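Allow me, if you will, to draw on your knowledge of protein folds for a short while. Thank you for your consideration; the sequence and its tokens are set out here:
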Amino acid sequence: MSFKELFIMPLDYIMIPAQLVFSLLAFYFFVLGMSGLVHFRTTKEYSPQKKFAIIVPAHNEEMVVGPLVTNLNSLDYPRELYDVFVIADNATDLTADTARKHGAIVYERFNTELRGKGYALEWFFNKLYTMPKKYDAVVIFDADNLVDLQFLKHMNNRLCGGAKIVQGYIDAKNPTDTWVTAVFAMSFWVPNRMLQLARYNLGLSNYLAGTGMTISLDVLKEIGWGATSLTEDMEFSLKALLLGYKTTWAHEAIVYDEKPLTFQQAWHQRKRWALGHVELFRTYSLEFIKQALSKRTKVLFDGALQSIQPLLVLFMGVFSLIGLFDAFVVNIYTPVFRYIWPPLLWELVFSLQILYPFLVIWIDKLPRRVVKWTFFHYLFFVYSWIPIMCISFFGKTRVSWSHTLHTRSIHLADIVKQR
């Protein structure tokens, strides 16, 4: 076949440059993932110094907020150096009374127009700034969480070492309940090491994940919260990075999060996150690309990749459909495509998707009972992000906030017994 004949199909002029770009991105994320296999940045230990305001936004969470407050009041950290606040946000059940009974300082908020976690936090932060007692940092948890007893010690070490924004390791309370909780847990375990720890090792900026996150109060006052999207955590991370504040990672600071039991629940939750990511793409991606090109720093380049993630997932969906159409219906581009993105590379990417969960479960000593769901179930769950993101990309991103119902009361001791 002559060189001219290689380019006789119109789609070649789209597919060849696109596959070159995706090949470079695949290589980048491969290197990034491999950088997370070893924890090679050590953190200096400091005596307890920092004062923390632990904040728990809670809407109708009477079933789970009690065990969390009890857990937080038992952390291995000087009790005079932290307080536990619960925001009973538009609660119509016994959330406020239950939290008080277990020892939390409760603030009740009622605003049916500005609903959601981001608005509740903004409201409370304004009150926190004027309190007589002063704090060095805020720590934010969801009401369904449970927390490792050493959590604040690890956050104190990061802050004393100069960090301003820190994300902890998100584990699962209920990874063995159903195949959905298992693969949902894996979808956090793998990024915890292959993305979050990897970025920390390489000196890049991490991203906040909604819970188990610590923010220095001086930074919060300086740049303001202002994060009211459906993914307020990522929004604050991106805004802070553009203003020069990196988010760092604390792999040892573990928070246990409750995962959805059914695929339908998981679909709705992930669609809400996808809508939030799309909104952030529309808001921040051009500014990140502009700054990455002008300042030419690896941190901003990686931040730009985070901001355009919805677009990358959308393109993956489009090119996957084109590939299936070409394979099973009619040839729509020439064999040059196979030289740019050979089948062997597809097999490598596919194999890594299978390998990563096994590596992470083994390295981080996670529950091995979920391994039986690693093959078909995990891959199905991961690739189901493509239709979710494609639907969300063309949807309205400012939608009404919806509450995720939590119905199981689990204590930290229950989790320890299962491990």
User: Anything to note?
Assistant: The first helix runs from residue 12 to 34.
